[in-house]
Amino acid sequence: MKTTTKIKTLLVLAIATFFSNTTSAQDTPATNYDQGFRLGVGLNAGYAVNDPYKLALGADARLQYDLTKRYSLTLTTGFTNLFVSEADGSDLGFIPAKAGFKAFVWNDQFYLMGEAGAAFAVTNGYNKTSLLLAPSIGYATKYVDISLRYEHYSDFAKVNNDGTTGKGVGQAAVRLAYGFQL
To answer: What is the pLDDT of residues 29-43, one digit of tens each?
Structure first.
């Protein structure tokens, strides 16, 4: 056998060995984890960070599909009411519709989540739909879910510091929920 043929044969064997080792080193999913749906029902209380609103109260239902033990997709809806601070203003009640992604980052209990969707105003003559963005951080067990989140509604009216009106209302909220596997 020529020297170049031996070198080519050794090179092909080395490459084949390298690729066979890397393909067999892939992680296999846990066989005891059941992918599936969860349903959570929660109560929300928050503080609206823009005038004329102050207090925010609501309730929601969240459908969650677990992709893996650490990653989930979510769909959330419910009802939220932003209460005005002045007696002559009108409260803003709306139905949020959000899709999100939840990632457990520590001990399979602490998570980060981002949601995006729409908020459909339904009370006091409001006829507006707003983009809704909501990052959150939370703690979840088998049945309890507690989270802190900020929600921003880009198209709802606010009162600026100089008395003019603008767009973009936000709220910081706490959610306490009971969840279970379907």
So the answer is: 544 456 889 999 999
Q: Does residue 150 form part of some domain?
A: yes
Q: Which residue matches tokens 């677990």? A: 66
Whether the Cβ atoms of residue 78 and residue 97 lie closer than 8 Å to each other: no
Q: Which domain CATH number covers 131?
A: 2.40.160.20
Domain that holds residue 103: 36-181
Question: What is the identity of the amino acid at 169?
Answer: V
pTM above 0.85, yes or no: no
Q: Residue 19: is its pLDDT beyond 60?
A: no
* Secondary structure (DSSP) of 56-82: EEEEEEEEEEESSSSEEEEEEEEEEEE
What total of structural domains would you count in the chain?
A: 1
Mean pLDDT to the nearest integer, 65-86: 92
**Residue 29 covered by a domain:** no
What whole-number distance in Å separates Cα of residue 102 and Cα of residue 110?
A: 10
